[in-house]
Amino acid sequence: MANTILVGAQWGDEGKGKIIDVLTEEADVVVRSQGGNNAGHTVIVKGQKYVLHLVPSGVLRKGVKNVISNGVVVDPVSLVGEIEGLRKLGVKVDGSLFLSETAHLVLPYHRELDGAREMLKGKNKIGTTKRGIGPAYGDKAARVGLRVADLVNPERFEAKLKARVKENNEVLKALGAKPLSFKEIHAAYRKAGDYLKPFVTNTVVLLHQALQKGEAMLFEGAQGTFLDIDHGTYPFVTSSNTTAGGACTGSGVPPHRIDRVVGVLKAYTTRVGEGPLPTENAEISDMLHAMGREFGATTGRARRCGWFDAVATRHAQMVNGIDDLAITNVDGLDTTETIKVCIAYRDGKKRYDYLPTDVEVLARCEPVYAEFEGWLQPLDKIRSWDKMPAKAKAYLKAIAELTGARLSIVSVGPGREQTMFL
Ligand code: IMP
Fold first, then answer.
1. Is the pTM of this model over 0.90?
2. For atom 22 of ligand 1, which residue has the closest CA?
3. Which architecture, in CATH terms, is 4-101+207-261?
4. What is the residue extent of each domain of the chain?
């Protein structure tokens, strides 16, 4: 396998966890390079469900190195909980999980600030996961963040944390929130620091040694293109670069060592949290929720759903340089008679073939639809492309063509075996 970046080509929750799991079969190293425990990747192996938030999905395969690199923001207490959960399920992490010394920490005041700012925004809230992601990246950019290297250095951690808790308590009070106890945070984080110490290393050097040995790397993107801090529907975005470029800055692996970008998309569109979603549709939302689908892995929130938006995915192809497409959740449309696909947006007389940059314009845009006949039969037991109904093939080929990339993987259910390669 070539060095591959895998990105979400929509608003997150595209089913990346499952595709990553399938691709890890050929990977030697799996890297998380952005985001934090706002992500939730669901992987089902032999009927056992694993929900991963910070730990790369390669942990479920023997012999794969799993790297949480510099671009990730790490809540150490949450990471310890995740590792413990995996150990209980018999998953081995020792010697296969590596944590960057320069990854920034998410601290309790980040979570409190996240919640307090959302409250203040009222109806203009972002709808964050309240995991403290925005404030943690904010501290990183403001150069006042604490990093993993600080966490595992007791004296330095204590001094830095004291100063940060003091300052943030003033901010929290000003926002009408309760101040936090330094002592409690210190005790919990030091305990987590001791637990995590064996995993901590210089991951840039580790990754370059792997490159020298010709090991195959898979960069596991979290969230999706339109949640990217630069290319998403700002301000209704997360605080990291979820697009392909983020994999390089977030890991220290240079761009010219990347061979391929795989974009993951659902056969329809979903989004959690606030912000525009041009093809949102109550009927398709109700249908998918009634099937028990489209509830968030991290927060359990019902996702907003809509028709496939080819304007968005075409834009995602452009920004990420997507070569190959993996289309997931195709079976979600099994009972739909007429399937719509958005091929352009209209704002009054103006037509858009790419996403307008102004989020207020995007919110006003009306989708222009093409229609496809549904296949009206269950796909979940189909195991090869040749056996797919002609109408499903026509639909998938059309959305790949409209997106502008090669159709390579089709998924008709959560299991590893429900995956077809073209
Ligand atoms: P934050 O990342 O918690 O700050 O949330 C910012 C926005 O990104 C909100 O709309 C969240 O719902 C969304 N978001 C964050 N992480 C994910 C994810 O893993 N999947 C889907 N949406 C996400």
1. yes
2. 12
3. 3-Layer(aba) Sandwich (3.40)
4. 4-101+207-261, 104-196, 264-421
